[in-house]
């Protein structure tokens, strides 16, 4: 059970590293989020597992990861899937840790055994009812401000992908539908067949 709301409580990456591995959460500007929602309980006193992603979410994630990893085989860029910690602005970022559904990193100096320290080249988030606001607003701003060059928001319900490309510090949206083949801007020559992604 959550403890009373502590509206002024802020946490750091050092705090995050002390919490139980079963407490699956993200830290954004010092605030805890669980399954896309603000969490006001005591993380030190909490032992809880987040619900597993749905079958549809998992299938979409696997298809995207498969297409990306096949393209990247033998290349320097790497694709990773959640749970994988990302400190968006590097080691000095002590109050924000996110776990995107998928990410691509081309600079291996950003990688260590704990995750990624700095902005990935590409991030993919797959919407769920509980995460829509976080992915479209909160994480959108975080990724844009951190300099993530390409941000995909995948909507399983509408079978669409909103590709956001960073231009002059702002995201420009490029929408794609189920029948489209979407190019990956940060990976020259890589194209994702969306019909394969949304065929569950």
3D architecture notes:
With 200 residues, the chain is of the alpha+beta class. It has a single domain, classed as tt1808, chain A, CATH 3.90.1570. Strands 4-6-9-10-11-12 form a six-stranded mixed β-sheet, with helices on both faces. β11 and β12 form a beta hairpin. The protein is globular.
What is the topology?
Blueprint: H1 13-16, E1 26-28, E2 31-34, E3 37-38, H2 55-72, E4 78-81, E5 85-87, E6 102-105, E7 111-112, E8 115-117, E9 122-126, H3 132-146, E10 150-155, E11 160-167, E12 170-177, E13 181-183, E14 191-193, H4 194-198
Parallel strand pairs: 5-8, 9-10
Antiparallel strand pairs: 1-2, 2-3, 4-6, 6-9, 7-8, 10-11, 11-12, 13-14
CATH homologous superfamily assignment = tt1808, chain A
Whole-number count of domains:
1
CATH topology: tt1808, chain A
* Count of runs of 4 or more consecutive helical residues: 4
Low-confidence stretches: 1-6
Task: Return the CATH architecture.
Answer: Alpha-Beta Complex
Radius of gyration: 17 Å
Total number of beta strands: 14
Helix and strand pattern: HEEEHEEEEEEHEEEEEH
Residue-averaged pLDDT = 89
User: What's the CATH first level?
Assistant: Alpha Beta
- Classify the secondary structure makeup into a structural class: alpha+beta
Largest sheet: 6 strands, mixed
Spatial strand sequence of the major β-sheet: 4-6-9-10-11-12
Helix percent reads 10-25%
Strand content: 25-35%
Distance between the termini: 35 Å
């Amino acid at each position: 059970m959550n403890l009373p709301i502590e509206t002024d409580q802020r946490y750091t990456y050092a705090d995050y590293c002390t919490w139980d591995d079963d407490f699956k959460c993200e830290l954004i500007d010092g605030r805890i989020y669980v399954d896309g929602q603000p969490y006001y309980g005591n993380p030190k006193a909490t032992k809880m597992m987040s619900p597993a992603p749905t079958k549809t979410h998992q299938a979409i994630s696997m298809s995207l990861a498969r297409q990306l990893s096949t393209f990247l085989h033998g290349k320097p860029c790497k694709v990773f899937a959640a749970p994988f910690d990302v400190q968006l602005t590097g080691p000095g970022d002590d109050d924000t840790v996110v776990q995107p559904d998928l990410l691509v990193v081309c600079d291996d100096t950003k990688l260590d055994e704990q995750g990624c320290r700095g902005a990935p080249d590409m991030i993919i988030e797959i919407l769920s009812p509980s995460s829509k606001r976080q992915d479209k607003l909160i994480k959108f701003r975080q990724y844009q401000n951190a300099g993530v060059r390409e941000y995909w928001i995948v909507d399983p319900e509408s079978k669409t992908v909103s590709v956001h490309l960073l231009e002059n510090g702002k995201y420009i949206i490029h929408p794609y539908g189920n029948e489209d083949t979407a190019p990956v801007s940060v990976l020259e020559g890589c194209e994702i067949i969306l019909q394969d992604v949304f065929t569950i």
